[in-house]
Task: inverse folding
């Protein structure tokens, strides 16, 4: 049975009148008031309805409350038990979720319900729906200008242990043995007792961590051979081949070893570390995690946000830097592949940028052309090329891409445009080029009659971009990119995104997106508080009379409400309240 509270319905009497004026003001000005007023109704409750049956079964927990708890749990980086305690006792959560009643049914929830609802959201990608809905709503409420944005990535880790190569083999074999014993005991009993003794139990696995470096090569050969033997032993058993742990063994063998045949049969050879791909298995407990040579094992989160160019601190506090796009990738994926999806996602939702700042990893020629097609100006440095490539940017070109002058100040004797079969070309005086001190770094190549410069359309575009990077306009624009590093620090500091409590891409994606949604809410609450503080300061010149009248009126209203609840019937009390409000 579905239970949903209609938060649009107005109540005759203020259910929060028991709060003192100062406490009520603190709640209203910060994120709880913002959430209750603008965001509570944006939670994707309607997309939860297909998973429940209306009119049959036990009533569900109030769905707005459940989704709100799941969101606030990730915002505050809480465990399930801590989130349940906050729902029961934290008045900020009560105010944000609009739960004025004091019943156990309204303010308590079981860990099983929290887990089940979270799994529904993960399976149906409702974290993405919630992030988009809340980000788009905040953009409207705060009038966020999305024309200037910046993008970067942050490396995060799931709840897994960092394993070496020997441990990857041993843990994968151990996981297979446990599952085989649980589901196919007779097949488990057929395994060689020496193999079981070598990998079964914590003591056996701990022995692999005490191996000296001098014995690692021999141990790797042993564990790889055992892995191969187990795969061969059960390759004709369909019920075993379909097991997830058996497929993990096959994956480890393919990634870590190479097979060769000889007269004695197949021979297993352990690959060199440099030959192992970055998307190889890092831990059998988290098969989705991969490896980044720069940052290590785990995942990465792409984050794109708006920013304000104002220099005044008071005004900057009142503006909202809104995270408009979040995407979770494996750690081995290159940042260059994240730009096009980010532009497409924000453009579809109406919060796309006109100018996008990014670091060198996003600044490929392909991304620059994609951004131009999307009418987005990409402000990102190009990869540092060879010295001759860098010197090409000091040549002068006309609008057609033809060279008009070299860095030494000489004009070419002839030029040729790009065709389907040839690149751009320019011919310079041979003797003059041979005598030029810049020749060793110059891309011009001496020929028999002239010194020739030939360059592709891509090299021409990169040369133009490298020349632009030295301009004052580019330097002034690009200096704002560094602010996204502060966002990444805040992202981790306030939500704990860099070290998650879960494993696997679906759960990691859910946690990261929900934490980004929570960060948007916390930022919006701070901006709302700063704005109201500024408005109060600007209106302070009116005098203290209005403040006094408001305080007296509030006290009289509360007195009439309390008196009406004792001496008047509900209709008379309502009339009295409306008269006082007027």
Result:
């Amino acid at each position: 049975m579905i239970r949903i509270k209609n938060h649009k319905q107005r109540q005759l009497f203020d259910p929060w009148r028991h709060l003192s004026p100062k406490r009520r003001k603190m709640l209203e000005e910060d994120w709880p008031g913002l959430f209750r007023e603008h965001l509570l109704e944006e939670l994707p409750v309607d997309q939860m309805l297909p998973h429940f049956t209306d009119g049959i079964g036990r009533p569900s927990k109030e769905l707005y409350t459940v989704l709100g708890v799941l969101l606030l749990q990730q915002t505050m980086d809480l465990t399930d038990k801590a989130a349940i305690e906050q729902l029961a006792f934290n008045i900020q959560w009560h105010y944000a979720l609009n739960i004025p009643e004091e019943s156990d049914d309204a303010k308590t929830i079981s860990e099983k319900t929290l887990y089940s609802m979270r799994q529904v959201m993960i399976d149906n990608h409702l974290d993405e729906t919630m992030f988009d809905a809340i980000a788009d709503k905040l953009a409207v409420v705060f009038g966020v200008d999305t024309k200037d944005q910046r993008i970067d990535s942050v490396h995060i880790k799931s709840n897994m242990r960092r394993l070496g190569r020997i441990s990857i083999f041993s843990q994968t074999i151990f996981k297979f043995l446990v599952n085989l014993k649980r589901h196919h005991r007779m097949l488990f009993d057929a395994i060689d007792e020496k193999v079981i003794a070598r990998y079964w139990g914590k003591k056996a696995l701990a022995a692999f961590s005490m191996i000296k470096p001098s014995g690692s090569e021999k141990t790797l050969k042993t564990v790889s051979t055992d892995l191969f033997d187990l795969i061969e032993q059960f390759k004709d058993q369909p019920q075993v081949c379909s097991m997830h742990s058996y497929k993990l063994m096959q994956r480890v063998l393919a990634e870590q070893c190479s097979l060769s045949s000889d007269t004695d049969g197949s021979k297993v050879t352990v690959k060199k570390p440099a030959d192992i791909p970055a998307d190889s298995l890092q831990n059998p407990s988290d098969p989705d995690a991969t490896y980044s040579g720069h940052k290590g094992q785990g995942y990465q989160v792409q984050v794109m946000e708006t920013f304000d160019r104002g220099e005044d601190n008071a005004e900057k506090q009142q503006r909202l830097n809104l995270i408009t796009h979040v995407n979770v990738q494996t750690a081995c994926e290159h940042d260059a592949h994240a730009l096009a999806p980010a532009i497409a996602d924000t453009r579809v939702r109406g919060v796309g940028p006109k100018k996008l700042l990014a670091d060198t990893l996003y600044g490929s020629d392909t991304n620059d052309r994609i951004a131009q097609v999307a009418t987005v100006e990409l402000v990102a440095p190009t990869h540092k090329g060879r010295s001759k490539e860098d010197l090409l940017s000091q040549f002068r070109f006309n609008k057609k891409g033809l060279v008009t002058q070299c860095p030494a100040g000489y004009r070419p004797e002839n030029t040729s445009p790009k065709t389907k079969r040839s690149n751009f070309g320019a011919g310079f005086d041979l003797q003059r080029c041979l005598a030029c001190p810049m020749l060793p770094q110059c891309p011009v190549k001496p020929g028999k009659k002239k010194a020739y410069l030939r360059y592709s359309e891509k090299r021409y575009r990169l040369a133009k971009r490298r020349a632009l990077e030295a301009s004052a306009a580019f330097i002034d624009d690009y200096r704002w990119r560094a602010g996204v590093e502060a966002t990444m620090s805040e992202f981790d500091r306030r939500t704990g995104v860099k070290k998650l409590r879960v494993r696997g891409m679906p759960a990691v994606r859910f946690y990261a997106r929900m934490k980004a949604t929570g960060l948007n809410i916390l930022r919006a609450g701070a901006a709302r508080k700063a704005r109201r503080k500024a408005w109060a300061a600007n209106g302070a010149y009116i005098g203290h009379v209005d403040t006094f009248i408001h305080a007296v009126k509030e006290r009289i209203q509360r007195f009439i409400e309390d008196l009406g609840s004792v001496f008047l019937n509900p209709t008379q009390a309502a009339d009295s309240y409306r008269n006082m409000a007027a």
In short: The chain has 26 helices and 14 strands. The first helix runs from residue 21 to 29.
